[in-house]
Amino acid sequence: MLNKEQKDTYNKYVQAKQPYTKYFPTLLWAFLVGGTICCVGQGIYDAIMALFPELTKDVVQAYTLVTLIFISTLLTGLGVYDKIGSFAGAGSVIPITGFANSIASPAIEFKTEGWIFGMCVKMFTIAGPVLVNGIAGSVLVGLIYLCF
Known about the structure:
Layout: H1 4-17, H2 23-51, H3 57-78, H4 80-88, H5 95-109, H6 115-122, H7 127-147
């Protein structure tokens, strides 16, 4: 156990090493980059609707999501999405693109360890807890909905 003096010394050390965050610019860039990603998604949706008017809204939404996943995975593979993430912070974690990045990034990082023990095992290190909690939450909501 640490005594009070050791705790105080440790807390001072942590505060000295902790980077200073400028909250307003960080929030502004997160908002602008996140909004830009959403606008790109809306542009893709509108372009598909204009090019293929015979498609239903559900099909166009699916094509839009697949396109956004492809773009974010490609940018992750090229190393661009990491730069966007370090610049925009939470703005780059828009649900579909951020999720694709969270799966592709560990897969790329651990590809040298092989297909099974590298990519397949490590691919869900970040996204795995999100999937488990999302599925468990949806089952819980479904049971509540079913019972009431």
